[in-house]
Design goal:
The structure holds 3 protein chains of 3 kinds. Chain A is mainly alpha-helical. Chain A is flat and about 75 Å long. The termini of chain B are far apart. Classes of the chains: A mainly alpha, B mainly alpha, C alpha+beta.
């Protein structure tokens, strides 16, 4: 902003409007929005939620099952090398893989849902 | 110990942080080549930023120290820190972004339409943030003490000062570029010395590394299996509620990008966590006397000098120190920003930018005091407690808030108070040292196993008992959380 | 809600007034009925009629002219020797005797203007023949703000006059509130028309198309691009659904607007955009920045200067986004700007600024109004703060 051009003149004053004492609308909800949402169909939203929840629970169940039994397995095996290999190395690619599967599944759910609702895929 | 290299490295990190921040701010374009759509933060960049902010002193120093001291069971910490993002991804990421909330209090207010819940969540955010800040400051004190011989308190005070000045002056904002840069810096600071360490190890004729389970000293818990589960529950479920993690999701342009960002985060921090075990293992070989010393967190810092020695070792040691400092700075500034924001909005009386500047020192003063009072606790352990509180309070709130239509404000309050309050109380008792052994100690030191179910149950049962209080906007909120943006009625689907 | 309360007040005000008189006369006299009306009923009719005569001037708001017209009616309503109407600064109208008291009125009502509480005072007149020995002052309020006062004078203390003056003042307040409502309704319509016309005035369409046309032969590719920008821009501006948008969309629309403006003015206009990507997802009221940018363009090109520079920045400030629009153009006289922001700038000038200021305050609260730094020939810098989250504000 500085440089060869004219400097802005210094005689500026700060101006603000007067307080209106308007209360901000704490729960401003455009009625139309809600109506349109119900028009889109609560049932549709519920079915999408069920699909997404199922995907999430599947991934979580796999995680919980593996992780839940691992400490017991380690305690039973008492093999230090196995612990190093599994926790220090193998766990991370597996976690990433599981996450990748979930993301694909969730995005596919959304695409299918969009087709269901609008007859065209989500861009 | 060559102090001048270390001091230079630390100074460079601080300087680079400020410079990259300034650079990021100054990227400006004329309209002709400006296209908003192409300039939103992509998942890759945002993920690096989230990882940079997330990888704290606990990750950088604490994990290797614990592994060195207590054996491979401690590797559950990094696994938990990573898996926490998987849980966040499958239950929270996209809906949280679509909720439009910037902070957890925003989410609570938007979902439950209650100022009371908002205020309570704010208190917990400040509490969890403070719990998480204490070890950052302690870690900084330790780093400087070991590397330069400065007094223990000095490093913490230094980090606190830098962060407060930078945040209050508006210089080190949560700018994506800075945080992304911090990730790559931290990765480099561990990766390069690790490669040299492995070479040195090779050169020494590959002496056998003692991989045994906690061979060096006795286990640290009376009930190690319970402690492991406690740790797993806390880290897996606690990540989603950490205040500086939540605010970063706002930067994603939409829910789908938020999901992809989380996937990238998982990969990035997973890659990072491959390194601390190397330090832990080699540390057992090269710095074996450490476990009998005061603090195992120093292993990472001392290892290059011990294993390699000479100028190379000193330089690598300085690199590690710089990385550690980057960890303190980025996590501490992110947390301070988040806590100060909550204090300004919901705790201090009036709002505005000026008040934010007043809140920043306050946000930092409490944990600084804590870090000076409480000493002798491993960094990773105190971080674990912040995770436990987060898992018992925010996890039920987020998961039920996003997936369960019958959640009510009284239910949320009950869950927060019981789950979060009890785990917080357990933390306080543990830190005070009132209970030192046996089951009581194990239950209090790793509270997540029981406090998370308590939080969920309280939320569900009280909500069911107060059916009449289900917020009227629940259905609209659910639609907003779960519908893809392009399908939202008021969306911009037709614009492009 | 306040609309309903207002309606109730409008209906109840005159009724109360009339009812009060009716009740007063009733208790004073034994009950009597008549086919052609009792004296009490006649008094009531007279009161209502007088009140209705005072209504039209008051509906124009509290100005010197309206006060002068209304004061006459109000004095006859109260039956006092003198009546005075003031705004916050000065006496607007004096009706009746003893106009020389006018210069002391503002001293008497000073406390009332601050507290909004009724006061009574001794006039302390040096002239012993003057009948105005005592006065009572009541506030005229709109939206809990004291807009002015009504002062009634009498030869001696009178509880009846005090009560009556209070009732009349309240009735006047309702009328003024109504006037305010009228005005904001007009302003809303004006703003809406202006908001559309600002983007899409025939002028703008003509100029844009002419500029595009000039490229058709020399640079068909650019003409094509501009035409697409034009189409996109109009589509966004005419968007009819949803009250909110995102900062990203708003900036995109501004970008298109500027491309069209520059097609016409070329090198005379240089624009710098500086946007922190972190704030792009922020939700905000629809078309809040565009009028400000248009304002900057206008001010920049208005002067005799050859080129104009406009800087638009959107930065991350924690829980808020801060948008600054600055030009180095002719600027504006600060007092004139103050009047505009008060809604007194007239029909056509700066309605965009006022509209944006009002909408921001409406949605986010008073502390989020526009902050403008300007002076004559000093350019103008407008700062807008937008909270990243506000319950109910969703951009997508």
């Amino acid at each position: 902003m500085t440089g060869e051009s004219r400097q802005p003149a210094p005689r500026r004053e700060v101006v603000t409007g007067e307080p209106r004492r308007v209360r901000p609308l704490p729960r401003y909800r455009a009625q139309a929005e809600i109506e349109e949402q119900t028009a889109l169909g609560d049932a549709y939203v519920r079915s999408l939620m069920r699909g997404q929840l199922r995907a999430g629970l599947t991934a979580f169940a796999v995680l919980a099952l593996v992780v839940g039994t691992l400490p017991l397995a380690f305690a039973a095996l008492r093999d230090a090398t196995a612990v190093w290999v599994v926790l220090g190395f193998a766990a991370y690619p597996l976690l990433t893989l599981l996450a990748w599967w979930y993301v694909r599944r969730a995005e596919r759910n959304e695409r299918d849902f969009a087709r269901l609702v609008k007859g065209r895929p989500v861009p | 110990m060559n102090q001048s290299y270390t001091v230079t490295a630390v100074a460079l990190v601080v300087l680079a942080t400020v410079l990259v921040g300034g650079f990021g701010l100054r990227i400006s374009r004329t309209t002709s080549d400006f296209y908003v759509a192409s300039r939103t933060v992509g998942p890759g960049l945002n993920a690096a930023a989230i990882s940079g902010e997330y990888l704290s002193a606990a990750s950088f120093l604490g994990v290797a120290g614990l592994v060195l001291l207590h054996g491979p069971d401690m590797l559950w910490y990094p696994v938990g820190y990573t898996a926490g993002y998987l849980v966040l991804l499958v239950f929270v990421a996209a809906p949280l972004r679509r909720s439009g909330a910037y902070t957890l209090p925003d989410f609570a207010e938007g979902r439950l339409e209650s100022r009371a819940v908002r205020r309570l969540v704010s208190v917990f955010v400040a509490g969890a943030g403070w719990l998480y800040l204490v070890p950052q400051l302690q870690g900084a004190g330790l780093t400087l003490a070991i590397l330069t011989g400065a007094p223990d308190w000095f490093g913490g005070v230094l980090v606190a000062l830098v962060v407060v000045v930078a945040v209050a002056a508006g210089g080190m904002r949560s700018i994506t570029f800075v945080q992304a840069f911090q990730y790559w810096l931290k990765l480099t600071a561990l990766l390069v010395p690790a490669l040299f360490l492995l070479l040195a190890w090779q050169g020494d004729g590959r002496p056998r590394v003692d991989l045994d389970l906690a061979s060096a000293v006795a286990g640290r818990a009376d009930h190690p299996l319970y402690a492991t589960y406690g740790l797993i529950v806390a880290t897996f479920l606690g990540t989603m509620g950490l205040p500086h993690v939540v605010v970063r999701f706002y930067t994603s342009p939409n829910g789908r990008a938020a999901r992809r960002t989380t996937l990238f985060v998982l990969a990035l921090i997973g890659a990072f966590y491959l390194l601390p075990p190397v330090y832990g293992a080699l540390g057992r070989l090269y710095v074996p006397e450490l476990p009998y010393g005061t603090n195992a967190d120093a292993a990472v810092l001392l290892l290059p000098e011990r294993a390699i020695g000479g100028l190379g070792g000193a330089l690598l040691g300085a690199l590690v120190a710089g990385g550690a400092f980057a960890a303190f700075l980025s996590t501490a500034s992110g947390l301070t920003m988040a806590v100060a924001g909550v204090l300004t909005q919901d705790v201090l009386p009036s709002r505005g930018v000026r008040h934010f500047r007043l809140a920043t020192p306050l946000a930092m003063a409490v944990p600084l005091g804590g870090s000076l009072l409480i000493t002798g606790m491993p960094v990773a352990d105190s971080v674990g407690m912040a995770f436990a509180v987060s898992a018992s309070s925010f996890c039920p709130l987020l998961v039920l808030g996003i997936w369960w239509r019958r959640l009510t404000p009284p239910g949320a309050i009950a869950g927060l108070l019981l789950g979060g309050g009890l785990s917080f109380a357990a933390t306080v008792i543990t830190v005070s040292g009132a209970v030192r052994s046996g089951w009581p100690h194990a239950l209090l030191a790793w509270p997540a196993v029981w406090s998370v179910p308590v939080g969920f149950l309280a939320m569900i049962l009280v909500s069911l008992a107060t059916r009449g209080r289900i917020p009227p906007g629940t259905n609209a909120a659910m639609a907003r959380f779960h519908l893809p943006e392009a399908l939202m009625p008021s969306g911009k689907g037709g614009v492009r | 809600m306040s609309g309903a309360a207002l309606a109730v007040l409008i209906v109840l005000g005159p009724l109360l007034l009339a009812g009060g008189f009716l009740l007063g006369r009733r208790t004073a006299r034994p009950e009597r009925t008549s086919d052609v009306g009792t004296p009490v009923e006649h008094a009531t009719f007279e009161t209502l009629h007088t009140a209705s005569l005072a209504t039209p001037p008051l509906r124009a708001g509290l100005t010197e002219e309206s006060a002068r017209k209304a004061a006459r009616r109000l004095r006859s309503l109260l039956g006092t020797d003198a009546l005075c109407l003031t705004d916050r600064e000065r006496v607007l109208a004096w009706d009746g005797l003893g106009e020389h008291h006018g210069k002391h009125v503002m001293d008497h009502v000073q406390g009332l203007l601050g507290s909004g509480r009724y006061t009574a005072f001794a006039s302390g007149c040096g002239d012993l023949d003057c009948p105005l020995r005592w006065g009572v002052a009541a506030p005229l309020t709109v939206d809990h703000r004291v807009l002015g006062t009504l002062v009634a004078y009498a030869p001696r203390e009178s509880a009846v006059l005090a009560r009556a003056a209070g009732e009349v003042a309240r009735w006047v307040s309702v009328q003024l509130e109504l006037a305010e409502l009228d005005r904001s309704r007009t302003r809303l319509i004006e703003a809406e028309i202006k908001a559309l016309r600002a983007q899409i005035s025939p002028h703008f369409i003509f100029n844009s198309l002419a500029a595009i046309a000039s490229f058709v032969r020399t640079d068909p590719e650019r003409a094509r691009e501009l035409l697409l920008e034009f189409a996109d821009f109009t589509r966004y501006s005419f968007r009819r659904h949803g009250d909110f948008t995102t900062l990203a969309d708003e900036l995109h629309s501004i970008d298109q607007y500027l491309a069209l403006v520059r097609a016409r003015f070329g090198e005379r206009l240089s624009v710098t955009l500086q946007v922190a990507p972190e704030v792009l997802p922020v939700a905000m009221p629809f078309l809040c920045l565009q009028p400000l940018v248009e304002n900057a363009v206008k001010h920049g090109l208005e002067g005799a200067v050859t080129t104009s520079r406009i800087t638009i920045s959107a930065l991350d400030a924690g829980a808020e986004a801060e948008v600054v629009i600055e030009d180095d153009g002719v600027g504006m006289e600060p007092d004139r700007l103050r009047r505009i922001l008060r809604g007194e700038g007239g029909a056509s000038t700066g309605i965009g600024l006022l509209n944006v200021d009002e909408r921001l305050r409406q949605v986010y609260g008073d502390e989020y109004g526009l902050v403008i730094e300007t002076g004559v020939d000093a350019g103008m810098k407008i700062t807008v703060r937008i909270p990243k989250y506000r319950a109910g504000v969703h951009g997508t």
